[in-house]
Amino acid sequence: MRHAALLAFVALLAACGADPVRFAAPPAASGERVAIGFSSVEVREVSMPAYAQGEEIWRESPEGALISDPAVLWADLPPRAVTLELARQLSALTGARIAAEPWPFRDYPGAVLEVRVDEFVPGADGRFRLSGQYYVAAEEGGRDRTGTFATAAPLSPEAGPREIAAARAVAVRDLARLIAENGL
């Protein structure tokens, strides 16, 4: 009996010290091409709300509170990961030369895209919600543009971190399409 209790205690201690599990957003298919008015675009690092700047995957409870589990983390910090996802999706959608900052090419980009996110959460309503505002600063006499966005990807209430990551990828893909069609 004492041996079983000791084994259970050791197992509990090992579980407490276990490394967290990390989840990356899988690539979402881009879909049909979109023509834009720029041959090159720099994507600035996406600005995120405080809760979405760290590694923890937050979700909305039925009461509306944002909760997380410190043992379940994003594979990369959301501002960096979403910036890279957005640049990759925009490049695939448009065929233009699009890169995340810092701009890696010798010539300057035709436009600079800045995205400010105010909501980035798997909601209790069964949707991964991504909303905020984007700004396009055109270089050399072009027309600056801005717009708001609210994208959502379906998500079952019982969804785990893998499904949350996949829904995030779809929401970012939809954001890229919205920006390409309306801002670029």
Present the secondary structure layout.
Elements: H1 2-16, E1 21-23, E2 40-43, E3 56-60, E4 66-74, H2 78-94, E5 97-100, E6 111-122, E7 127-138, E8 145-154, H3 161-182
Parallel strand pairs: 1-4, 2-5, 2-6
Antiparallel strand pairs: 3-4, 6-7, 7-8
What would you note in describing this structure?
With 184 residues, the chain is α/β, with parallel strands linked by helices. The protein has a single domain, classed as Rossmann fold (3-Layer(aba) Sandwich), CATH 3.40.50.10610. It contains three helices and eight strands; from the N terminus they run αββββαββββα. The strands form two sheets. It has a five-stranded mixed β-sheet. Helix 2 crosses helix 3. The chain is elongated, with a radius of gyration of 20 Å. The N terminus is likely disordered. Keywords: Lipoprotein, Signal.
Overview features:
alpha/beta; three-stranded mixed beta sheet; single chain; signal; 184 residues; five-stranded mixed beta sheet; Rossmann fold; lipoprotein
Produce a short descriptive summary.
By secondary structure, this protein is an alpha/beta fold.
How confident overall, as mean pLDDT?
A: 90
Largest sheet: 5 strands, mixed
Fraction of helical residues? 25-40%
Which fold name is given in CATH as the topology? Answer: Rossmann fold
* Beta-strand residue fraction: 25-35%
Please report the first level of CATH classification, the CATH class: Alpha Beta
Gyration radius from CA atoms, angstroms: 20 Å
- The CATH architecture comes to 3-Layer(aba) Sandwich
**SSE ordering:** HEEEEHEEEEH
Number of domains: 1
